[in-house]
Design goal:
Belongs to the binding-protein-dependent transport system permease family. HisMQ subfamily. This is Amino acid ABC transporter permease. It is a multi-pass membrane protein. It comes from Streptomyces sporangiiformans. There is one protein chain. The protein starts with 5 loop residues before the first helix and ends in a 28-residue tail after the last helix. It has a single domain, classed as MetI-like fold (Orthogonal Bundle). The protein is globular, with a radius of gyration of 28 Å. The longest helix has 41 residues. By secondary structure, it is an all-alpha fold. Helix 8 runs antiparallel to helix 10.
Length: 267
């Protein structure tokens, strides 16, 4: 009878705990059918809400008047400084307890609101830095053409600023997707559970950590393609349209035989 080495026993225990493919295969259908959709719903809603809040806050932060900048600065500093879990609990538990129930008893709405508020605080600083990086001459040129300040910002300056911060925005959107896992604290109803909530339930049922690996794979399937796509888009925007490499001789409208000198013959 041969005894297994401690290293072999440890590796087997590690594989059984984190990579039990039977448990993973059993967890995946529920993760994909329910958790993936709800994670995308929470993250997409939070991203849209965060971008809207961030644009408004960034415009306030760029004001020359301190009393206009102050509310936006307080909002950004407070919600960037608070731990995400505290903000989720304040919004999802504190607001209903105080009688403020814009979404009734639906925890999904409070989840989107909480993550959106946090996302807006971070994205506002991203937008502000991007807009300030645009050459002031762009704004002056737009104003010289008769555009108002707000119209010049909306049509000329802001689009250029956002294009410059696409990679940073992608990082924030990836963060929103990951932070959606914290909304399990709000006690989502059946049919509303996101990836982490479902994985946590499966861990408690099977006493195995493999469902967390399955949930991690689902998160990676969302975040990695998004990162590469935005990096590709950013690279294309920086390089501009690709020049046409078709040779002039390939143009069907051009003559294919050499031109002859006027009044002469071909030699």
């Amino acid at each position: 009878m041969t005894l297994s080495s401690p290293v072999s026993l440890a590796s087997n225990a590690l594989a059984d705990t984190f990579f039990d493919w039977g448990v993973i295969a059993e967890t995946f259908p529920r993760l994909i059918s329910e958790g993936l959709l709800n994670t995308l719903t929470i993250a997409a809603g939070a991203i849209v809400l965060g971008v809207v809040i961030a644009l408004a806050a960034a415009m306030l932060l760029l004001s020359n008047r301190w009393w206009v900048r102050l509310p936006a600065r307080l909002y950004v500093d407070v919600f960037r400084g608070l731990p995400v879990i505290i903000t989720v609990m304040l919004v999802g538990v504190g607001l209903p307890a105080a009688g403020i129930r814009p979404f009734g008893t639906d925890p999904l709405g409070y989840a989107v609101l909480a993550i959106g508020i946090i996302s807006g605080a971070y994205t506002a600083e991203i937008f502000r830095s991007g807009i300030q990086s645009v050459d002031p001459g762009q704004l002056q040129a737009a104003r010289s053409l008769g555009l108002s300040y707000l119209k010049a910002m909306r049509l000329v300056v802001v689009p250029q600023g956002i294009r410059r911060v696409l990679p940073a925005m992608t990082g924030q959107f990836v963060k929103d997707i990951k932070e959606s896992s914290l909304v399990y604290l709000l006690g989502l109803a059946v049919g509303q559970r996101e990836l982490y909530f479902i994985a946590q339930e499966e861990v408690a049922r099977t006493y195995n950590s493999s469902p967390l690996i399955a949930a991690g794979i689902c998160y990676l399937a969302l975040t990695i393609p998004m990162t590469y796509f935005v990096n590709y888009l950013d690279r294309r925007l920086r390089e501009g349209p690709r020049p046409d490499k078709t040779p002039a001789s390939a143009d069907p409208d051009l003559p294919t035989t050499p031109l002859q000198p006027a009044g002469g013959e071909a030699r």
